[in-house]
Structures are given as C-alpha cells and as structure tokens.
Amino acid sequence: MKLSKEFLVLLNAALSGKNPEGGEIDILTSASPDDWQRIAAISREQNVTGLVGDAVTNLPEKIAIPDNIFLYFLAEKEKCAIQGRRMAAIAKSVIHGFNDAGLNPILMKGPATAAFYPKPELRTFGDIDLFFYHDEFHKARDIAKSESGFMLASDGSFHFKKDDVDVDVHDGYFDLHISEENLPKVPSAEATLLMLSAHALKHACGTGVGIRQITDYAMACDALKGQYDPDKLDAAFKESGIIKWQSLLSSFIINILGIQIPCPGGKTISEEPLLKIIEEGGNFGHHAAGRSIVYGKSATKRKMDTFRRFLRRLPFSLKYAPKETFRTMLSLLGGNLHI
C-alpha cells in the first residue's frame, strides 16, 4: 500500500514530537473520510499505529477527523503505550537477572531503539533482543536453559520466554556475514547505527522491510548526533560492504521522511527502490502478496518461502550490498536459511 502524503505528515509529526505546522497541516484540513481510512490502514500495515495515533489525537480542533478514526487511534495509542511500558519493564527484569549472575547483556534492536523516540512507549516491538560478548554468551545460555520455551536456533543464538514475551539472545551484534573484529566497538554510537542499518538491510533483502525499521535508524541517527564520527561511520559501512545500501537508506530518510541526517558522499540518490519494498510488504514484509499463506505452516515451508523471496530480491541485493549478498549466499549454500 502506497504511503500517502497525509500519513507521512502525521508520521513526521510523531517522530519530531511536534504537531504539523504551516502549510503541512493544510493537507489534513482537506482530508476526506476515505483519506483517514487510508491513513489508518497504512499505519496498521507499517505497525506504527501508536506513533501516528499520538499525532492524530493531538491535532488542533480545526482538523475534522471522523469520530471512528479518532477513537481508533486513541485506543491504539493507549494500547501501544501500555504494551510498551510492559515490554520495557520485562526487558529491565531480564537484564537485571543476568546482571545478578555477573553477566552484562546489551539491549539491542527494538527495545533499545525505543529510547530514541520522543515517546519511547509508542514505538511498538514484539520481542526482546540481547547481545553478549562471546566469553559470556555460553554462561548466559546455561542460565537460560531453565527458562520457559528455551530453544537453540540454527544460527547459534538461543531463545526463551519471560512472562510470555520472546527473548532472543545473540553472540553477534551485527546482522552481517563478516568478522566483527574490524567493525565499531560495541557499545558505541557507530556500532548502534551500523547494527540498525544492517538489520534493515537484512529484511529488505529477504521478506521485506517496513517503515518502522527505517524510522529506527532515523531516530537513532538524530538522537546520537554529536556522539559519533560521520567519517568513521562511513568507513564502517565501507568495511562491511553496505555503503551503497546506506546511501539508499539515508536518501529515503531525507527525501521521504524529511529528516536531515548524514548521507555517504553528501549527496542523495533516488529512494524509489526502497520505497517500493516498503510499500509492497509493510512491516517485515508481512503484508506482501502470498506471505500470509505460509503463516502457521511448518518451519521448513516458512524458510523456503523466505529463501524464494530472497532469490527474487537478488537484483536489488546485488546492486546495493553485493559483498554482503555474496556472503549470505555462501551461508545459504552451507545449509543455513536464517535470512
């Protein structure tokens, strides 16, 4: 589903923490009931109803919002806030549990990224991701074996449940098939930004990526301004082989979201290839044609569907991240379908 101008105005308001001003608000003044229905549908598909709901419910009275749409976003905003605070509390509890055992996990991806948003509780996330350095990872795994739902994954990570919330634990911080020795030190601002960019790339080259993963990078880049060296960050993108992808990601954020962040080379490129992926599948590609058919099927069928989608996206992957795509294919040939 195409991202409407009305949706983007509201999303930008949520990301900035400010209500639309000046000429931007005019497009909402003339929005029809169908336009508002479309805003709600896009927000659901991109999994940003909490964020957009905050902007909608704080608009000035001169904006005529259909009652059913206003109440929908009001409920979504509250539901998201309750869930967000619950997830943050569970993440804190899990980390404290490992700390009590003398271990030092690093919160990553969704739960950590939420802190970069104006209202962290409105950034939805469904699981908790933790990173351990290699010397602590096996100790953490031994501790987690007694937890509910403990399971080893094919990529070496492990999984368990805490209060019915999925916790994924990794000994690799970056979604990259490259040694982390030459990459930014974890934790650091450069490492956080590289991790978020590589995570978005992984999904863009696989089942799909949604607007939420893109706003994660935008919010982190803005919040960490002054804490990272743009030249060192570009060097990390080059070292990992994703500098072209980063140019595309930055261009989308600048041209579509209107958020000014550093762009490799200082010049934007066309954002259309990434926009197409975002619009065709939404959040993690869940809304792509035929994707819902494999939900509830066996793990093998789901992985094969992911593999087929990865193959269909090869022209994109080879253009924007050729080295990483080659490394991923070698991994797949080795029998690992974790993409």
Write a brief structural summary.
This protein has 15 helices and 5 strands.
Inertia-based shape: globular
Count of the domains: 2
Number of helices: 15
Radius of gyration from the CA trace?
20 Å
How does this structure look, described?
The chain has 15 helices and 5 strands. The protein has 339 residues and is of the alpha+beta class. The chain has 2 domains: 5-83; 177-339, no CATH class. Helix 8 (189-204) crosses helix 10 (230-240).
From the structure above, extract its key features.
single chain; alpha+beta; 2 domains; globular; five-stranded mixed beta sheet; 339 residues
Give the SSE layout:
Blueprint: H1 5-16, H2 26-29, H3 33-45, H4 49-56, H5 67-100, E1 106-108, H6 110-113, E2 127-131, H7 134-144, E3 151-152, E4 158-162, E5 165-170, H8 189-204, H9 211-223, H10 230-240, H11 243-255, H12 272-281, H13 299-312, H14 314-320, H15 322-333
